[in-house]
Amino acid sequence: MKQYRPTIYQDLDPSPRLLMGPGPVDVYPRVLRAMSAPMLGQFDPEFTEYMNETMALYRQIYRTDNDWTFLVNGTARAGIEACLGSLVAKGDRVLVPIFGRFGHLLTEICQRVGGEIATMETEWGTVFEINEIAEAIGKHQPKVVAMVHGDTSTTTVQPLEGLGAICRETNALLYVDATATLGGMPVEVDAWQLDAVSAGLQKCMSGPPGSSPVTIGERALEKISRRKHIEGGLRPTDYVASDGPAISSNYLDMGMLMDYWSPLRLNHHTESTSMLYAARETARVVLDEGLESGFVRHEQASCALRAGLRAMDLELFGEQAHRMTNVTGVHIPQACGDGEQVRTQMLNDFGIEIGTSFGHLAGKIWRIGTMGYVCRKPNILRSLNALEAVLRRNGFDTPKNAGVDAAYEVYDE
Ligand SMILES: Cc1ncc(COP(=O)(O)O)c(C=O)c1O
């Protein structure tokens, strides 16, 4: 039988103490209030105005002028599938540079739509030099390069500057999965010349899972337009189908999604009303704090956390020059076995959840998230304090108070 877990309810009404210090303190009440607003019809002018506002808000968050910046219903994976399923046609060559679990996800999605995939891999915890990717692009001549920005499985972030220009030279489209970085680290869609990007709400954006903000540039739009088919029963009398292959998913067909989000408002799915309210409010909360202030908050928390972990004689995982600021990987010390008992005690005794990883890193590293509204000083200090106590109970001798003291030093700088 499933046990009642009071922490879930505490999360919905977080103690003000958990929200001390700079950061979006009011995200939960604001988003929950927004989600409980009365549902409007999907063509109600008030609702379509909210859609337009949401597009404008996410343009700011993605730092883009792309008209086509909108929401796909579903978690981040829905946005990935909508982008890749619409950009990759059967037989299209795709290059996927893989530096963690989510690169494998992009590969799998491209395979399922019939792409001819070339992959390149680097050891988990490291990332690629841009010229390595450029070389692979030269070799494989892909139509699409699909790349994760921050791979949460390895806690590393791939620098993207320069990659967009290389893709343009070779006429490849560049898709980026920014699920784990949007709102926490810069995602410069226009400056980095990214053609299509998707994300989710539940990570650094501090929102609920279930809506995926996407942005589509002119070059990607061209490809989608060449594959555009309007479903039977909706076609205008003068409709001429485009000559490209139809996108295989109906629900995640970018062409039809755009027709619904455009002034045409051509009927497609029924928009998830409450999720749209949530996505809109989440974006407003993030922009109220200020994107740059949010990035600084994530960076500072991550520095403090890493300083604390090091001072506790733990070894950080991955290339530190390419670490994400919103999740930190740390080797599980030998004394703690696969680390599961530590995770359980952290959760049950202190109400703090830390993760392990996937694949060959499962049971080898812990991943400690500092994402979104929880990423603030009291939570960093509490987590280090709790971890010290739990580690000691599990036979890992860590110096007393060293973690919290080191984190304090970072915050005092
Ligand atoms: C980089 C990355 N991409 C994609 C996903 C999948 O997101 P979702 O579970 O919202 O579909 C995740 C989730 O952790 C992620 O970290």
State the major sheet: 7 strands, mixed
Coarse morphology: globular
Q: Helix-strand pattern, N to C? A: HHHEHEHEHEEEHEEEHHHHEHEHH
Which band does the percent of strand residues land in?
Answer: 5-15%
Which key phrases capture this entry?
disordered N terminus; globular; 2 domains; alpha/beta; 413 residues; seven-stranded mixed beta sheet; 11 strands; single chain
Describe the protein's topology.
Layout: H1 6-12, H2 27-35, H3 45-62, E1 68-73, H4 76-87, E2 93-98, H5 101-112, E3 116-121, H6 130-140, E4 144-148, E5 150-151, E6 156-157, H7 163-169, E7 173-177, E8 196-198, E9 211-216, H8 218-226, H9 254-261, H10 273-289, H11 291-311, E10 327-331, H12 340-350, E11 365-369, H13 377-393, H14 402-412
Parallel strand pairs: 2-3, 2-4, 4-7, 7-8
Antiparallel strand pairs: 1-9, 5-6, 8-9, 10-11
Helix pairs in contact: 2-10, 3-10, 10-11, 11-13, 11-14, 12-13, 13-14
Bound molecules: pyridoxal-5'-phosphate (PLP).
Short account of what is shown:
Helix content is 41%, strand content 12%. The chain contains 14 helices and 11 strands.
Tell me about this structure.
- Strand 2, helix 5 and strand 3 form a beta-alpha-beta unit.
- This protein folds into two domains: 262 residues, Type I PLP-dependent aspartate aminotransferase-like (Major domain) (Aspartate Aminotransferase, domain 2, 3-Layer(aba) Sandwich), CATH 3.40.640; 122 residues, Aspartate Aminotransferase, domain 1, CATH 3.90.1150.
- It is built from 14 helices and eleven strands.
- The strands form three sheets. A seven-stranded mixed sheet has the order 1-9-8-7-4-2-3, sandwiched between helices. Strands 5-6 form a two-stranded antiparallel ribbon. It has a two-stranded antiparallel sheet with strand order 10-11.
- Helix 2 runs antiparallel to helix 10 and helix 12 crosses helix 13.
- The N terminus is likely disordered.
- With 413 residues, the chain is an alpha/beta fold.
- Helices cover 41% and strands 12% of the residues.
- The site of pyridoxal-5'-phosphate has 12 residues, from helix 4.
